[in-house]
């Protein structure tokens, strides 16, 4: 686009009182930019000023005012490139004269205060002008053909609910269920927990009415005794191969194996299936480069509602509780099967089980331990099954021993109702052991609410084992992705398929595939139906976003996507391997094959590329690099003791808003620091760090989301990958005679705003102790 520039400086919100606006505008005028100021740019008159200039042809605007995170819609103009320079939150509000750092009390009114603050504002303005020259208007990526059908994997209560909700919205849906009948586990229950007010009593399973409702929708197709063999493609254009359980599918092998690998040990040709297996091994499991199935069905989005399986204790795992030794010690799943078949009787001899003990924690005296994959659902199930005992026998007794009784939300009503049941005894306590007592058992418990040891005679003992997601054993989706057929193992979720457990509950690590129900966490039927609605809405949002050529999440509405300059690609595969979401496949040579509709727009590929050939229309190596180079670095030619200059590359999801909140609260940090927001720390290319240091900046730090066991990174792996890259830059720094301590990475959450001044100032102090960068002035 032919750009016509304009710089607009707002003097409101204290900006005009703290800065020399004339000198600030002069910085832009020296670069040939026309400058206009206004006391209230976001007000009616200010907006009209901007709109008039846009109508007169100005299409590249640098707006120096408040943070880019506020008034976004006000300062958005169709057909224009806009950059927001943050003079308010991260300049004048965060550097009030009374708290200006690095100045003694008698210097608070000195010119040095104004000089440092003015330099800060001028650098930010120069960075904005540098960026606006290097970015362009994005053009949406649109598929040649968009398929709006939704595939639901799993025909249980979650899958049926999701399919019904999507069908109500007018979308075609196909349910794939591996069993001969739909209904899932919900159809095998004796009774279920309440799903509506007053949430007090057990009710008949709602699954049957849900199936009846499903059958009323002609736009829902149900395929039983069917599983997914492979999903290829991208949102809006998935190609799905379906098969019968156990059936073998022969996919083509598009690129030949080495000749010696085509023969068996006897020198005979291997069959196609074996060649395919070896081919996957030879190509590191890259199913993405297999040819698409020409007979596969087309879908636009996928809802994964494959459910869960009962936890299966290993041999001897709960021996102290009698499991495996006595047939009358069962799991809650086994007890539900017994109850669904009629009155509760002992498995050992078929006699009435009138005294049943429910154990919710497997370990002796361990307050933190529950059964694996347990949670609030297992607490509620124990209450439900205790109620069965009282329903079957007037003199029935149920004893529930727990370390944690979790009944969230309106389930508390059910818990209170159970407490009033005379035949049910509830107490916090540790079960020390289960022993035989004639044809029954004795359960010994300690540390109870009664403050004494208890012995209970029991006909049966029920262990509150958990619900294991089927994805822990089987990828289910069988993706034809570079990174394998399942979800990337980030070591956190024990087989659950969450992408970000804090912010995005339905969104898996694979764009266009949305999880609901037991594959996401252990849930009640009520929760599963609600979860299904959320996943259905996300699938619909995905389809409509792809149709408009924009990102679905977390950068919702982002029209950009990565562009590759393939002529310089060295096929190093770093972008394909490091992409957290499998957006990139590659061919037999290792050349990336982008799938823009899969892309989350995090920029991790851009940060990974050593050749720097990947970028976005409005965010690329050159745009950020130019911002870095535009920062003024004072030298001894200008000052006897030049001030330090430190660069902060900050994550726009958590760190940047936290800085804004700190500024809003008038918290202050060193004015020697310059911030550049980045999409994710994973998008940080080390060339930016090298450029900053080579031009004389004294230090660089990265500020972003937490990673590890309690990760909060919106892009799953970005912060972790950035840390790895920062550590590897140490050798390069050493070769330049620079200390490794000049580069650091810090983790913050969005609510850590009050910690930021200390983090920043401590780093600046550590840089001051190291002394000036020896490249300063060159």
Automatic annotation (TrEMBL):
Domain spans labelled 4Fe-4S ferredoxin-type: 560-589, 590-619
Signal peptide residues on this chain, from the entry's feature table: none
Tell me the Pfam families matching this sequence.
Answer: Fer4_9 (PF13187), FlpD (PF02662), NAD_binding_8 (PF13450)
Q: Which UniProt keywords apply?
A: 4Fe-4S, FAD, Flavoprotein, Iron, Iron-sulfur, Metal-binding, Oxidoreductase
A Gene Ontology molecular function term of the record: metal ion binding
**What is its cofactor?**
FAD
Q: Which InterPro entries match?
A: 4Fe4S_Fe-S-bd, 4Fe4S_Fe_S_CS, FAD/NAD-bd_sf, HdrA-like, MvhD/FlpD
Highest taxon in the source lineage: Bacteria
Return the similarity comment. Belongs to the HdrA family.
Tell me what this protein is called.
Answer: Quinone interacting membrane bound oxidoreductase, subunit B
| Organism in which the protein naturally occurs | Desulfonema magnum
